Amino acid sequence: MDSTPSPSSSSPFDLVSSALGRYIPRGGSPAAAGPANAQGDRATRQRVPDNPAADRHDQILGVVNLDRDLRITRCNLDAAVFAGLDAVTGSPFADFLPPGDVPTVTRRLRHVLEIGEAHVARIQRLRRGDGSELVVSMSILPAAAPQEGLTVSLIAMARRLHLYAAETAIGTSLDIGETAQSLAESLLAWGDVAAVDLDFAVWTGEGVTEQAQGRIRLRRAALVPDRVWPEGYVTPGDDLPSDASRLLAQAVRRDDAPQAIVIPDREAVERLLGSPRVIRALVPGDRSASVACIPLVLDGAPSVVLGVAEVWRRADCSFHDSELFDLQELVARTAHHVDLARQHQREHTQVLALQRRLLPRTGGGTIEIASVYQPATPDSAGVGGDWVNSFPLPDGRTALVVGDVVGHGLGAAATMGQLSMEARALLSAGLAPDEVLEHLDETVTLLDDAESGLAAGYSALGSTCCIALYDPVSHHVTLSSAGHLPPVLVLPNGRAGPLAVSPHPGLGAEFALREPFEVYTFGAPPGSLLALYTDGLVEDPALSIDEGISRLADVLSTVHPWDALQQAARHVVAALAPVRQRDDVTLLLVRMIGYRKGDTATWRLPARDDAPARARAHVSALLRQWHTRGDTRDDVPLLVSELVTNAVRFATGPITIRLIRAGHGLLCEVGDTGNGRPRLGRGGLLDDGGRGLHIVHRLTTRWGVRWTDTGKVVWAEVAR
Known about the structure:
The chain is of the alpha+beta class. Strands 2-1-5-4-3 form a five-stranded antiparallel sheet, with helices on both faces.
């Protein structure tokens, strides 16, 4: 088997093999890095010593080349540490593996063959000819063209190197499941099966401050290797039987202190577990005879047990004291990673609950809405500050709001919730979108003050927001934007594109950068589709942001008017957002319905003394046409008359009257050019001023005022 590299070759095998020659131990011979095809060489190899100090200077790097059938074509495993790994040309690489690991490793090898991407630094056990095992760090590399196949590099794991590599791997994720899985994979170096069982409160992110009595509950968080397990065996995601949870907890917490224990043989295991059901749940197979149970302990006063790690071995491989010490050291080093993942899980759950609580529930009768919120991947910094909202306003319009608060985690979530509630309150009070953004701008500036308490150490400057108001009578959308990406509008004819909104610096910008918030109005006829979204939906490293928005418009144009809107929203997100994204994805789809033409009526009257009488006549005739009930037919003309009388008294221009039949009520609107705000006073019945508003208050379920560019509109709702 030839392993001599060609000087001009740059294949992974040759690069690794040539590197071996630079690390031959002092006193070694060139044959140590030469071909592995001489029977005499194999005969002179020695069994690797159990004491790591005895071969600390020995070569620990080896390399094997495989063809597409995963058979060995050449290798360089001449270092003493690889003694007993007999590589024969044409033999399957699977011969090196323990039987239980063959399916998983074979799947990884074929995956690298198919996609051409390396699989780096996975801890793996290899089987020697005498039945003993060697722990290595195995990397799988695709062969360089024009060669085919794979190059497998092997690094024998000395004790300290393995502990360091394991701790480094375990600390790379804040996802509690991935953290437990990394720990289990590292523990596999000491046994045939490794499992990690966590306290249910740890798994869900709750705090574990003391050992609960009578309600011990463990959940299996990780299990390796990946294979078919016996029926009844507990696999990841399953809760351990209550008896098993109690036994494990009692075993590792003796004398009220967490301790590692070893159950040395199958007879002792069965005697301790007792119940056949518990044995089926915990013992991975007939060959598993001994187990080491190591508690995951969070240091403190008192110490807190987060869970239990179990390592199972065959009957002929008992645990030595040094190995138990290594297991305890590894678990002790990594227990804090599990607790960090628990804290992240708790924060993630809290923020996600708040985020979903803010999602719109219903769109009312004039629009149809659907929303999708897809949080960033678990290994990101946490749930972000994306939010959308949709709610009907008292005057019959619908508010649509989308925002993106800077940052992730609880600070961003707190700011998100505050801005969302403030925007809703101000819009419900009748403020225009640009006025609401002015208030939000001031709020973000105040929150950036380190003295503000909640936001100390967190800055929301640069957050964005877009507010749109849909009028179901005029079928127009009025919007203002603070640095947010423009909404995309799809007209009933299928034409789609972003709305022409000028960019803005965003909320809380420096004074020199501040610009007035512009107000834009667009036509949105019934059947139109409006999409409000955050940048996570359209950002792609390979595309500009404009190209990402164009892709969104193209996908939205394929939504059929009869498609279920929630299903269409999920389709849009699936088509644009990758499965693993680094930012939250938020989408609000709105299908415009509006009022039917026969459900609305508008009159424009001059501000003269006869305006109230003329308004009563118009309204009475319409109510008879709508077949409203008798008391409504009496109350509404009186209500409109009082509103028009008030408008004539204070306005200088024409008066607009609008009546809308909506659901189970009637909405009356009277607009004028005055700027005075009607207020309900405390005057007596004989006082001349304010009696009209008392009548309005008694006749309506609710009433209010909204401001326009030319004056104000007083609206009132009456049940019918």
